[in-house]
Amino acid sequence: MSLEAQAFIVFCLGMVVFMGLGVPMAFALVLTGAGMAWTLDFWDTQLLAQNLVAGIDSFPLLAVPFFILAGELMNAGGISRRIIEMARAWVGHIRGGLGFVTIGAAMLMASMSGSALADTAALATILLPMMKAHGYPMGRSAGLMAAGGIIAPIIPPSMPMVIYGVTTNTSISQLFLSGIVPGIIMGLGLVIAWRIESARMTGVQRDEPMPYKDRLRVTAKAFWALLMPLIIIGGMKSGVFTPTEAAVVAAFYALMVALLVHREMTLAQLHGVLTRAAKTTAIVMFLCAGAQVASYMVTLADLPTVLTGWLGGLTENPKLLMLVMMGVLVVIGTALDLTPTILIFAPVMLPIAVKAGIDPVYFGLMFVLNGTIGLITPPVGTVLNVVAGVGRMQLDEVIRGVNPYLIVYLAILLLFIAFPQIVTAPVLWLR
C-alpha cells in the first residue's frame, strides 16, 4: 500500500476516532495532521508550528473577528430587538404571524452579522418566549428559528464565505454577491413551509392589528438598523471598501448606534461584549489553524489527485458531478461543523469542479449552502443545540420541529444544481 493511501486511511480513522472520543475539533485536526505527517515520513514539529501560524496569518481573515463583534454589538445594543419589533408591527397580526416575524427578522439580521449562531441565539432569546405565550407549538417554533438562523451564512456579509474565499483564493466580494438571491429564495421557502404548518395550528393567539401610524413609528425606530446592510453591501459593491474593511465598518457602526443612538449599552457593558466576541473569535481562529495542518498534509498526500481519479468520469457531466459532491458533503456535514468542512474539503473539491467547467463562485456558494444545512442536521447540528439551550428544550423536540424546513432546504439545493443560472446570473449582473 502506498504512503498516500496509508495517509488517507489515517486521516479518515483519525477524525472518526478523535471525534468519537469527544476531542475538540481543532485538536482533532491537529492530531490527525500530525498522524498523517508521521505516516508520510514528513514529521517535523517546526513545520507543524509554521502551518498552525499560517492558518490564521491572513489579512482577509480579519473580517471574522469584526463580524463576530458586530453581531454581539447588535444584540447588546438593541439593533436585533428593533428589527424584530418592526417585523412584528407589520405581520404579527396575521395567522402564524410570529413565525413570519421570525423569518423576516432572520433575513434582516443575516444581512448584518453573517453568523448563524449569533443570529439564532438572538432570535430564540427574544421570540421563543413570545411564541410560547401566544400558544405556538414549541418544537415547530424552535425548528423555524434554527432554519431561519442558517440564512446568515448565505446572505452577505458571511463569515463562512470569508473563510472559503481565503482558503480557496476565490473572490470574497463575488461570493458575497452570489448569496443575495439564494438567501431570498431560502426565506421564501420558509414562508411557504410555515404557511402550511401554521394552517394546521389551533389555539394560537394573534397580535392585535397595529394602526399604520404606530407601524411607521416602530419602523422609524429601526431606521439605523435597516441602514446597516445598505452601508455594508453598498460600500462593497461601489468599491469604497473591501469585505475585510466592511467588517470593521459594520462593527464600528454597530458600536456607535448602540452607544450614541439607542443608548442601550454602556461602556461598562462593552467589556462583556468584547470578551464574548474574543472567545468566539479564538474558537474560530484555532479551527482555522488546526485545519491548516490537516489541509497541508492532505495536499502533501496528493489526495485531490486521488479524488479526481475516482470522480474523473463525472467531469464530463457537471450537474451529475455537483450532485455527487453535494451528496458527499451532506454526509460530511452531519459529522463536521461548517468551518472545518470548508477548511479541509474545499481545497480538495474545488479543483475537480473547475476541471469540469463549474464556476468557482457558484461552487463556493453551493459548498457553503450545503455546509450550512449541516448546522441543522443531527448529530452535530450546532444551531439546533443553540436553540435547545436557549429555549431549555430537549434536542429531539427541536430536531422534529426543524425537519420540514430541512426538506425545503434540500429541495432548494437540488434546484440550484439543476439550474445554476439562479446563482450565476445575478452575480454577473451585480458585478
TrEMBL record:
Membrane spanning stretches: 7-38, 58-77, 89-108, 114-131, 143-163, 175-196, 216-234, 240-261, 282-301, 321-350, 362-387, 407-430
Start and end residues of each TRAP C4-dicarboxylate transport system permease DctM subunit domain: 14-422
GO molecular function annotations of the record: transmembrane transporter activity
Localization, UniProt: Cell inner membrane
Main location: membrane
Keyword NADP: no
Top-level taxon of the source organism: Bacteria
Membrane topology per record: Multi-pass membrane protein
GO CC, any one term: plasma membrane
Sorted UniProt keywords: Cell inner membrane, Cell membrane, Membrane, Transmembrane, Transmembrane helix, Transport
Family annotation (Pfam families): DctM (PF06808)
Entry's family note: Belongs to the TRAP transporter large permease family.
Functional summary from the UniProt entry: Part of the tripartite ATP-independent periplasmic (TRAP) transport system.
PANTHER family assigned to the protein according to its UniProt record, in alphabetical order: 2,3-DIKETO-L-GULONATE TRAP TRANSPORTER LARGE PERMEASE PROTEIN YIAN, SIALIC ACID TRAP TRANSPORTER PERMEASE PROTEIN SIAT-RELATED
Subunit structure: The complex comprises the extracytoplasmic solute receptor protein and the two transmembrane proteins.
Protein name: TRAP transporter large permease protein
